[in-house]
Amino acid sequence: MPRQDRLEIINKISQQRDSTVICYFTGDRKNISTRIAPDAIKIIYEHLEKNKIKEKIDLFIYTRGGDVLTPWRLVNLIREYSDHFSVLIPFRAYSAGTLICLGANEIIMGKMGELGPIDPTVANAFNPQDPNNPQAKIPISVEDVSSYFQLAKQKFKLNNEENLTKVFSYLVDKVHPLALGNVHRNYLLIRSTAEKLLSLHSLGEDEVLVENIINYLTEKLYAHNYMISRQEAADIKLPIKYPDSKLESLIWQLYKVYAEDLDLQKPFQPTDYLQNSTQKFQVCGGYIESQEALDSFIFNGEIQQNKMMQEAEVNITQQKWIPKIRN
Questions:
Q1: With bands split at pLDDT 50, 70 and 90, how would you rate the model's confidence at 310?
Q2: Which of 57, 118, 120, 113 is nearest to 233 (CA)?
């Protein structure tokens, strides 16, 4: 759908909400997905500078997650321009997307809106090698390490110091101590970040409530891909707002337009682009869009047909945000 049609929906949302609307849509198309990352901060800054900022700023967001440090910087940037920051969630806002929501005065969720746990999965040079790919490391879930000790203590009643020392020693034999240290640092980081984000608005005044929200999102859901509905989010006292039928229709319509533009329902297949033995391609994987500007996350690459192997080899040569429009 042309930008003008997307702008029409964005402007309708802006008029109904009396807000400045910025869209941050990270596509999750199979084989060529994007994620929340620090490179978006500069782009969103430029959008904030280009647009006439109203009293309220709405961030329309769709994401499967990403870098857990970006939300703190992004929310603080937006709050440089307005004291009233809201997020509009048509569908998914997982992991780092949920962290962004914690810094908002309002979380406006449609019936299909979903948040997710904020327990991070970490990887560094000391993580175990992937046996199926020696060049790769196996990510470690912070909560998996915690659950290992809970299993020992609660299920097998290994509560005395000697038994717990053996449990820890067995783990250290399998996982490098520095990898475990990194897990603990990320555990502390995610809790600290969530607490600071919640402190940016009225929820931060209730220390018990903040602690309960953080515990729920980090420890109580038991699966990183757990989907939190708007009712469940409201039950833990997040500032959830239900949109009226007109606003809900608009934000769902905008989601569908982006999803169609990015072809989210169709896995990226390199052979679809192959016309000769070697073919260059360009694919869009995400949008940052507002009334005055548009940036697209572009993958540039080259496909070569390997006739011996009867398959295509893909080489991504560049992936970055590209400014498309600056009014």
A1: low
A2: 113
